[in-house]
Amino acid sequence: MINGILWKLSTGAVWRDLPERYGPWKTVYERFRRWSADGTWDRILARVQQHSDALGTVDWSIVCIDSTTVRAHQHAAGARKGGTARRSDVPAAD
């Protein structure tokens, strides 16, 4: 179950594309949704952090954890619509 969730999150694929080896996609999705709503993922992260901290395996001066996932529309990045390419007003280095 967890491997199916990790596969989905790491690939960015839609739930319906979850490989059969992880079980029915609806079941995996519902479990992910439930665990997200009830704080299970937060508790897992806290435990992993506590364990790693106790072992001294984390350099807290360089750690950054961001649990935000944002999907952009397929056309969100890329060239501008219409118009022509503009040259920079900054002179080229000699």
Question: Secondary-structure blueprint of this entry?
Answer:
Blueprint: H1 2-11, H2 25-37, H3 40-55
Characterization of this structure:
This protein is mostly helical and 94 residues long. It has a domain at 26-57. 41% of the residues lie in helices and 0% in strands. It has helices at 2-11, 25-37, 40-55. This is Transposase. It holds the Pfam family DUF4096. It comes from Streptomyces nanshensis. InterPro entries: IS402-like_dom (IPR025161), Transposase_6_like (IPR052909).
Briefly summarize what is shown.
Helices cover 41% and strands 0% of the residues. It has 94 residues and is mainly alpha-helical. It starts with a helix and ends in a 39-residue tail after the last helix.
Keywords:
single chain; 94 residues; mainly alpha; 3 helices; Transposase_6_like; IS402-like_dom; Transposase
Low-confidence stretches: none
Strand content: under 5%
Mean pLDDT, nearest integer? 83
- Give a short account of the largest sheet: none
Q: In total, how many beta strands?
A: 0
Distance N to C terminus: 59 Å
Helix percentage range: 40-55%
SSE order: HHH
Radius of gyration: 21 Å
Q: Which structural class do the helices and strands define?
A: mainly alpha
Shape: extended
Tally of separate helices? 3
InterPro entries: IS402-like_dom (IPR025161), Transposase_6_like (IPR052909)
Protein name: Transposase
Pfam family, one: DUF4096
